[in-house]
Design a protein that fits this description.
By secondary structure, the chain is mainly α. It contains 3 helices and no strands. It is flat, with a radius of gyration of 18 Å.
Length: 48
């Protein structure tokens, strides 16, 4: 079994572009709205 510290050390780090996207409030807002729209669609699509 591998040591947890070794596995963590080998893990990929996010690129600067990925980090910028995670910090961008406009992009976060868009993702939040998009996931909520998808959830509402699934709720209305279901047979209740």
């Amino acid at each position: 079994m591998e040591n947890a510290d070794e596995v963590i050390a080998r893990a990929l780090l996010p690129t600067p572009e990925t980090l910028r996207g995670r910090k961008n409030l406009l992009l976060q807002s868009w993702r939040f709205i998009a996931i909520n729209i998808r959830m509402v669609k699934m709720i209305f699509k279901g047979d209740h």
